[in-house]
Design brief:
Elements lengths: L1 E7 L7 H10 L4 E7 L12 E5 L4 H5 L6 E3 L19 E3 L6 H16 L2 H9 L16 E5 L3 H11 L4 E5 L12 E3 L4 H6 L3 E4 L13 H6 L4 E5 L8 H9 L3 E6 L19 E3 L10 H18 L14
Parallel strand pairs: 1-2, 1-3, 3-4, 4-5, 6-7, 6-9, 7-8, 9-10, 10-11, 11-12
């Protein structure tokens, strides 16, 4: 009988009751196995595994020569699209659509914090200092360029519109203006968007095309005082250029949920720049995520069992 492997880790685990229900539902088709993503229990063979739900290590991938489907618990798939131990025949699916609401709320929290100088007030609170803000911004009437207008990007736009913000969407294809956007551009129009945005919000995945996309030239194109937000992937930003833009005053601040190296090294200058807010890749933390992801896994498991097209198939050439 074919095996479906659930590779769990601290931040991803289906409840025991749900696993039991799935095992009973598919008992005539699949054998379910639970493993740690870095360790297989003694005596357990994965050789005949056809599906893996989780983010397997290279060692585990090598143990599954007949794998046909890999379902990732994350929206990002950059670690697996060119993985040397993952056969090109394996269908790769991600958890896009799970993090939209949480991602948007987290991004809005960062934007509002920087707009109202909340990091400064936190420091003043710790030092028992009463001092008015010196330089606050405003969302009403401002322009936000959202680069990467997928699930999270569109949810961000929906919320910013309620603040009266003008939305410029940047997508791979600009065939029509998306809901909640005032205008849409493809990547050829990126510099135009950057030049007129008060807030630049990067929600891009990490691919060959987006590697260090935000570099010295791009930061130079931005308006003086622009607030830069990165909730996409750290590798899309040249951090040396970002640091220089912040220190020179070209940028008015930065909110970083992701960095090129994670955890961010203690020696990074980003920690000590006063108008930088770092949130330690916490965008996906919160209620609702597990339920949406578990529902997606169940739907895809049903599709897989029936030979139907899976949801969220990653284009391994594009990287997402």
């Amino acid at each position: 009988m074919e095996k479906v492997v659930f590779g769990f880790e601290e931040e991803f685990r289906l409840p025991k009751a749900e696993l039991k229900q799935l095992a009973e539902k598919y008992q005539e088709k699949f054998t379910f196995i639970e493993v740690n993503n870095d360790h297989v229990p003694e005596g357990v063979s994965l050789e005949d595994a056809v599906a893996y739900i989780g983010a397997p290590s290279s060692e585990l991938l090598k143990k599954m020569p007949y794998l046909r489907w890999l379902q990732l618990p994350s929206a990002g798939a950059n670690h697996f699209v060119k993985h040397p131990d993952l056969s090109k025949k394996v269908i790769l699916t991600n958890s896009s659509g799970v993090f939209g609401v949480l991602g948007a709320e987290h991004t809005l929290a960062i934007i509002l914090a920087l707009t109202r100088e909340i990091p400064l007030h936190v420091k003043q609170t710790n030092s028992h200092v009463w001092k008015l803000s010196s330089h606050c911004l405003q969302l009403d009437g401002a322009t936000a360029g959202i680069v990467g207008y997928g699930d999270i990007g569109s949810e961000i736009a929906h919320r910013l519109k309620a603040f009266g913000t003008r939305i410029l969407a940047v997508k791979r294809t600009a065939d029509k203006v998306p809901e909640d956007a005032d205008a849409v551009f493809d990547m050829r129009g990126l510099d135009e968007v950057l030049s007129c945005s008060d807030f630049v919000i990067n929600v891009l995945p990490f691919t060959n095309e987006t590697d260090h996309l935000f570099n010295e030239d791009r930061f130079r194109v931005m308006k003086p005082g622009t607030i830069f937000i990165n909730v996409g992937r750290g590798g899309t930003v040249d951090e040396k250029s970002l640091i220089e833009a912040l220190k020179s005053g070209r940028l008015g601040g930065a909110g970083l949920d992701v960095t090129a190296e994670e955890p961010l090294p203690k020696t990074s200058d980003l920690w000590d720049i006063p108008n930088v807010l770092i949130t330690s890749h916490s965008l996906g933390v919160g209620p609702g995520k597990d339920g949406k992801r578990n529902a997606l896994i169940k739907r895809n498991l049903e599709n897989f069992s029936l030979g139907k097209t899976l949801e969220n198939i990653v284009d391994r050439k594009l990287g997402y």
